[in-house]
Design brief:
Elements: E1 3-5, E2 19-30, E3 33-45, E4 50-54, H1 61-68, E5 76-81, E6 84-85, E7 94-97, H2 109-114, H3 124-137, H4 153-165, E8 171-175, H5 183-200, E9 203-207, H6 211-217, E10 220-224, E11 231-236, H7 247-270
Parallel strand pairs: 4-9, 4-10, 7-8, 8-9
Antiparallel strand pairs: 1-11, 2-3, 2-5, 5-6, 10-11
């Protein structure tokens, strides 16, 4: 498991990147001044790659996802989505799975999944067919007519995942989507995500506070420093690593936890 130091140079070598951040910075207005959230962020997510972002709370991880989703614009630097500037991107090719499942309580599971397709001109019959296929993909075909309150947290997360995938995106952005699940259900969702990724090969960029989750899912982990978020380090995780019970994997998890805890402690002393 190798580590790369922070550098403006892209870390991924291969096909054209799905996501590219070059010296990206972001500030928010605050009172009479501004709050710097991101500073000089540079890294890439390769086509078909899964990349995790780890870092202390407030380090701008979700802000970076919002930039990648086109929900806001950077103040400096350049971001490319599948080689396109954000004002030229076909955003239907980018899906965003939020921390909350955001299911509409008055809609059954099938209709919650079709919601992602209703902004376009797709015929109703095709929307329903694709939504049913999405539910089948996450193993919930038998719950198409169930309302959110009738489902477990894991089932709700699966429906949210189906809704994100039903548009057949090239890029999936995920903001701590499994953080509210118990450990066993979270592990199940990890397996589901990896299975779906293996079959569809979309590029995934996800934010997590869970070091083990990052190691299990990602091929690379980008560690952010405290606010303003900067790329503190980039760690390569071998795709064939033997699992969390392996000594080398446990050492990586311990090292990442210590690094983040150290940054949080330093931030507390400074503040």
């Amino acid at each position: 498991m190798s580590e790369q130091s922070a550098s403006p140079a892209p870390a991924f070598v291969g096909p054209a990147p799905a996501l590219s951040f070059a010296h990206v910075s972001k500030r928010f207005a605050q009172g009479d001044g501004s709050l710097e959230v991101l500073r000089d962020i540079s890294f890439e997510v390769g086509t078909g790659e899964i990349v995790a972002i780890l870092g202390p709370s407030g380090s701008g991880k979700t802000t970076l996802l919002n930039l990648a989703a086109g929900l806001m614009h950077a103040d400096a630097g350049r971001m490319l989505i599948m080689g396109q500037a954000d004002d030229a991107v076909d955003w239907s090719r980018v899906a965003y799975m939020f921390q909350d499942d955001r299911l509409l309580p008055w809609r059954v599971a099938l209709r919650n999944v079709t919601l992602a397709l209703e902004a376009g001109s797709m015929p109703v019959r095709e929307r329903l067919a694709r939504a049913r296929a999405g539910l089948a993909l996450v193993g919930l075909s038998d719950f198409a007519d169930a309302y959110p309150h009738q489902l477990s947290g894991g089932m709700r997360s699966r429906i949210a995942l189906a809704r994100s995938l039903v548009t057949e995106p090239d890029i999936l952005l995920m903001d701590e989507p499994f953080s509210r699940l118990d450990a066993q259900t979270r592990a199940t969702m990890h397996g589901e995500l990896l299975r779906i990724h293996a079959g569809h090969g979309m590029s995934i960029l996800f934010v997590t506070h869970d070091v083990e989750e990052a190691v299990v899912l990602a091929s690379r982990i980008v560690v952010f420093s405290p606010r303003p978020g900067r790329v503190h380090r980039v760690v390569d995780v071998p795709l064939d690593h033997p699992g969390l019970d392996d000594p080398s994997t446990r050492a990586l998890v311990s090292d990442l936890r210590s690094a983040i805890a150290g940054m949080e402690l330093t931030e507390e002393k400074v503040s």
